[in-house]
Design a protein that fits this description.
Helix content: over 70%
Shape: rod-shaped
Strand content: under 5%
Length: 275
């Protein structure tokens, strides 16, 4: 019994000792692998950080850099943008009530029309340049040449309309420049796009297929010029329609004020004949 127990205990000690030795061997073998595993990922980490820094440097694109990438057409598009800004400021200053029908001029000429003092009305029209003064100057000249009794209403309206068109001819031309720029800017951007694509395909034909960065600058030029042309054209077309409608509204109100002054003169002439 004791012998069997001793034999069993000896066998168990032998088994557990073998297991302990195997576990120790495995542990010793795994240590170099873990060190290698710990050291190997350090290189990708360093490379990934370098890639991140490079991407950050590449991602920092300012306005001057985009202009340089856009090439020669960006200078013309820049001139277009400054022209749009200049026209915008000019139209905001010019298309105002005081330049079309000043309230003081209207009241003064209304008094002259009521008193039938056409000479005083002509002097006021000459001294105060505006759309209303130009229309009234032409209409008063027509009335003095024809006389009070013989006034063709249709002919008088044509004279007033011609004077209004003559006075606002420069304003119409200025507003039309918005339309010209709105049409020319996308075409200039398209021309820059074609220029960039020609450069890209030229480098591609010279064996640049293995290095995309060789013709990336030409692709950037093609895309930036197209976008810049649209950015310039969109505000220009909006300004064209807005200021064109504003000019038409100002001219219509000026014509209404001129017709009111002529109506005052007609009523005064009729009352004087009746008296």
């Amino acid at each position: 019994m004791n012998c069997n127990f001793f034999a069993i205990c000896s066998l168990l000690v032998f088994v557990f000792s073998n297991l302990a030795l195997q576990a120790q061997d495995e542990f010793d073998i795994s240590l170099p692998g873990e060190e290698a595993a710990a050291t190997v990922p350090q290189e990708p980490a360093a490379s990934s950080s370098a890639a991140a820094e490079g991407a950050a440097e590449v991602g920092e694109v300012n306005l001057l850099g985009m202009i340089k990438q856009g090439g020669w057409s960006m200078w013309i598009l820049g001139a277009f943008s400054f022209a749009v800004i200049g026209l915008l400021i000019f139209c905001l200053i010019d298309l105002q009530k005081k330049n079309f029908y000043p309230e003081l001029l209207y009241q003064a000429m209304a008094g002259d029309m009521e008193a039938m003092d056409l000479e005083a009305a002509l002097l006021k029209a000459q001294s105060t340049p505006s759309c209303l003064s130009g229309v009234m100057y032409a209409s008063i000249h027509y009335i003095t040449e024809r006389g009070y009794g013989v006034i063709d209403s249709e002919k008088l309206e044509e004279v007033m309309a011609a004077a209004s068109r003559k006075f606002n001819r420069g304003r119409v031309r200025t507003i039309n420049y918005f339309s010209v720029i709105a049409q020319a800017a996308p075409m200039m951007g398209l021309l820059g796009t074609v220029s960039g694509m020609i450069g890209a395909f030229a480098k591609l034909s010279q064996g640049g297929t293995g290095d995309p960065s060789a013709f990336a600058g030409n692709i950037s030029e093609a895309l930036i010029t197209t976008a810049s042309g649209l950015v310039v054209a969109l505000p220009a077309i909006f300004c064209y329609f807005i200021f064109r409608d504003r000019l038409q509204g100002m001219v219509a109100e000026c014509d209404e004020h001129a017709e009111e002054l002529i109506g005052i003169l007609r009523r005064t002439v009729v009352h004087s004949h009746e008296a």
